[in-house]
C-alpha cells in the first residue's frame, strides 16, 4: 500500500516538473531572435514597413 502512495506522489511531481519546464520554454521562446526580411514602402509622406520571417538561410 505504501508503494502505491509513493508512485502516485512521484507522478504528480513529474507532471508538475514537466509543466514548469514547458512554461519556462515558452517564456524563453518569446525572447529568442529570429531572422526577418524587411520591406519599406513610401506611401504619401509616410513610410510603411512589413517583415517576413525567414525560416532557412539560402546560399547566395
Brief rundown of the structure:
With 60 residues, this protein is α+β, with helices and mostly antiparallel strands. The radius of gyration is 24 Å and the shape is elongated.
Layout of secondary structure:
Elements lengths: L1 H29 L5 E8 L2 E8 L7
Antiparallel strand pairs: 1-2
Cα distance spanning the termini: 66 Å
Mean pLDDT: 83
Largest sheet: 2 strands, antiparallel
Radius of gyration in whole Å, from Cα?
Answer: 24 Å
Residue stretches low in confidence (pLDDT < 50, at least 5 long) are none
Provide the helix percentage. Answer: 40-55%
- Helix-strand string: HEE
Strand content range: 25-35%
Strand order across the largest sheet: 1-2
Output the number of helix runs. Answer: 1
Shape: elongated
Class inferred from helices and paired strands: alpha+beta
What is the total tally of β strands?
Answer: 2
Molecular structure report:
With 60 residues, the chain is of the alpha+beta class. Helix content is 48%, strand content 27%. The protein is built from 1 helix and 2 strands. It has one helix at 2-30, and strands spanning 36-43, 46-53.
Structure characteristics:
single chain; 60 residues; alpha+beta; two-stranded antiparallel sheet; 1 helix; 2 strands; 27% strand
